[in-house]
Structures are given as C-alpha cells and as structure tokens.
Amino acid sequence: MPDSNPILQLQKLAGRRTFDKGEMLYFQEAVHRFTRNQLIVTAIVQEIQEFTVKLSIVDGQYEGSCNCSDSEGFDFCKHCVAVALTDISREAELEVLQEGDEIQRITGYIESMSEAEAKATLLKQITSDIDKTEQWVLFADVRNGKINKKALIDIINKALPLREVWRQNRVKTYFETAIEKFNRLISILHKLPTDPAFELTQTALLRYNKALGKIKDDKGYRLKVEVTLVQAFATFTSELNWTPQRKVSFLMSLYHQPFSNFALPSIYKRFVQKYPELIELFIEKLVNLECQFEQTETSSIQIEKTVDDTHVLILTDLALYYAESGPEVSTENKLKLIECKHKLATNLTEYIELAELCVSLGCKDIARKYITEIESHTLNYRQESKLLTLSANTQEQVEDIDASLDLHWSAYERSLEASDFHAVLSLLEASDNKSEADVQHWFEKAQALLIERLEDTDNQDTLFELYLACDKKDIAIAEAQDVILSNPLLHKISKLGIEMQPDLGFVLYRRLIRTYPKNTDTQGYETAITLLKELKSALKSKKQHQSFDFLISELIFDFKQKRKFIALLQGQFGL
Questions:
Q1: What are the tens digits of pLDDT across the range 382-399?
Q2: Residue ranges of the SWIM-type domain (predicted)?
Q3: What is residue 40's three-state secondary structure?
Q4: Which domain holds residue 13?
C-alpha cells in the first residue's frame, strides 16, 4: 500500500471530481477479478462496458493505466481510483488479519498470495500427503460428474477395518483414525447428489455397527464417530426429495433398530423436529405404532416392570413432542406427557421424578396420588427427602405455608442439599409475614445442624453452600481459608473474594490454582492457566500485580518437573 495518507494521495492524483466518481464505483462493488502480484495490481471495472485497469506502486505512489477513453493508457481515471480504493481496503483488512488468531493469520497469509502462487501452494500441500491426495482425487472426480462409489466404499472399509481390538490404547487409536477418515469422506459426500450421499452414509452406519461387534470400548472412544455418522445420516435424510409420506414411513422403520450394536438417538429430535411439514404426520404414525404394544396400567405405579427397548424409544419421542411447549403446553398434552412418562417408569426413583414432573406442570392432584402410592413403599433417605420436598410443593402456599416449611425442613435434614434449603427460603419469600428475623432464624437453625453433622468430616461443602444460599458471602470468604472444599465451590468463593475482599480472594485463587498442576494430565495444566488468566484480569492494584508475578515465579519453581505446564506458563505470561 502506498505511503502516507493513501486517500489524500488519490484525491490529489485524480482530482476531486474523478476521485468522487471512482469512489462511487468502489461502493457499487464494480471492481472484479482483482489480483495483486507484489507491486502490480490488475482488475476489471464493470460499468456498461468492462474496463481493464493496471496499477503500479512506484516509490510509494500509485501509477495507473486503463483502456478507457479518459485514461488513454496513462491518466489516472475513475476506474483507477476504484481499483486503488479496493487495494487500500484489502491491505487494511490483511493488516487486521495478521494481528488476529491463528485462523485469521493464515487467512491473511493466503490473501496476500497471488492466485497462481496460492494454487501452487495448495497443490504442493495436497500431493505431499497420501490421504489428502486420495480425497482430492475424489473431489476432482465428483466435480467432473464421476461418482466413484467403489472408492468411497473403500474409504468406509479402511476407516473401520473388521478386526478384534480390545486394548484401550489401540481402541482409542482405532477410532481416532476412523474419525479422521470419516470427516474427509463426509466433506466429499456433501458434494454428491443427495441420493448416493444418503446411501453411502447408510453403508457407513452398517459398517460401524458391524465393527462394534469386534471391539471392546469401555471408555466411549467410539462416540465421536457415532455422532458424526448419525448427524450426516440425518442431514442427508432431510435433503431427500421424497414425499412426506414416504419419508415418515422410512423414519418409522428406524424404530425397529436396524443396528444391533448401537441405538439411534431420538428419531423425533434428530430427523423430524426441525421440519414442520413432517411433524403432524409423524406423530400420528408414532401414536399408532405405540398402540401396537401391550398397554400397561396407568392408574397405579408398577415397580420393576419391563418395557420393550423399541417401546422405550417410541414413548421417549412422544414425551419429547408433548413436552415441547414447556409451561405453555396444553392440558391435553400435559396428560399425554404424564401418561408416556408413567409407561416408561420402572422403579421408585423414576416414579418420584414423574411426581416432580406433575408438580412442574401444575398437576398437583395427580402428583399427590403418586406421592401417596410411593409412600407405601420402602424408600432410602434420598428418596424420602425428595418425597418430603414434593409433599411440600403440593401444599397450597398461602394456606399451608407452615406445613410446607416443616416438610421442606424435614427434607433438608435428610439431604443437607442446598436446593432443599432454597425451597425453605422461597416459601419465606412468598409469605406476607416474612421478616429478616425469620430468614436469620432458619439460617442459624441450618448452620447449627450442619456444624453438628459435619463435625467428623473434612469436606465442608454443604455448610458453605448454605452461606452462599443465605447471602453470607463475607462469612464464606473468611472461613474458606481454613477448610477443605471441592474445587468448583472453592472457585465460586474465590471469584466472590477477589471482588469483595481482594487479599483473601487472591489467597483462595492461589490455593485453587496449585491443585491443578499436581495432576499430570494436560487438562489439569490448561485449567490452571485458565484460572491464572481469570485471576490476572480481576486484579486492580499494583500490589496485586506484584503478588501475581510472584505467584507465577513460585509455580515455575515448585512445578519445574512438569515441563509441559512450565511451557504453557511461559507461553501465556512471557516469563
């Protein structure tokens, strides 16, 4: 780009009137086929006719020529101005990209190349790697109207070779290699007509199902491959030029699970939910399909009943549909949702969750019926706690607030979970007679209970969750210095501390950060770096920044054996 102020230079070079005309062409995006090769710029400017412009940059100044009558090959015309403005704009964009993230810097580098140079570089990169060469040969074939189905099936088979794999490190490598190949395959499939792309995705899923029969994957390494293939399958299914009737019939067939070693996720959510033209017909067919299964009694709970796997998939999708409107769901759909969930429930925990659903939907009478039935069974303490909370939530708040408070307190005594104490606070909030003294009374009552219960335990999380629930932040920050807390809770209190009591907050952050490099995994190191950046951004005084620099030096010294962590520290904080 020319030196000094390039816009001012153009105005002087072309004259004000010509500059204004050229600027108008620039804003009208009349400049096409723009190329820059070092200090030579060429482009076409499209008006009623096409005009060819060539600019040279000599000693930081534009020199221009154009084949229009005004330029006659050497004068700086309006077309030259439009191309020069395009060049100035492009160079400014490149400067911004060069200061950006990795992708932006690469983009800027590519943009700075000439077309020929970019093509040559791309070709070199492609031909230096066998997999890339194979992929781009297929791109070329597809572009030329050739669909090499056998070559694409070969990629599928190579991605998932049929062999016994059971050692976890080999299972991990197996699926990492598979996802690389499938990502390349899917990029090719998107360039194919929909029908063959759909068929090949089906082939890939069948191969995946077959391969799973030979692999022992206890860690879930396969899931990334599974999600990728199912997503591609859903995408190509949605793009098929089929009638709604044909598409819905096909989707119904998927409930009979053509895959023996894995299950498709929610068919409604993945294949139907985003396509309004399918929903009504799909739900009608799904309701009919559900009616073909043996219908269970829906007026009472049945513990340890069995539900067919296909029936579970159907009921789950119907429940998802009936629940879609959230709080605005119709009364009819509320009852249908409850019916589906009732059919799915097979144990006390699931029936308690069903009663919770009834409360959330405002169906308190139905909830009470479930609660009464559940109470006749033997419950563990967590189930008792949840049932007490549910009983409280089904009370009429104004008339039965004291009874509800007693029930929520009983639930809290059993669970010691902050959510149950929040329910106590919510009831106090709803009471017309609520006072600060009431809140303080219940806080002190809960605090005394927890101090007694936690006397012989190291972890004090429940006590500090109570402090936060009751807005006792100062107490939480001060007392957190001397007790053992889980990292998520310590992080929450550290963030409060750095805002409210910076010195104490810094000490808490230091303690939290030091727990992560002790783990030898990369995630632990990265979490420590993230927390350090978070801490640094919250510091305000010079003294705090000096303490931060000392903390970095301390970490480098104390964890000098953790070379990867030290490299991350030095890379982020420049030490």
A1: 777 778 777 777 765 445
A2: 51-88
A3: strand
A4: 6-123
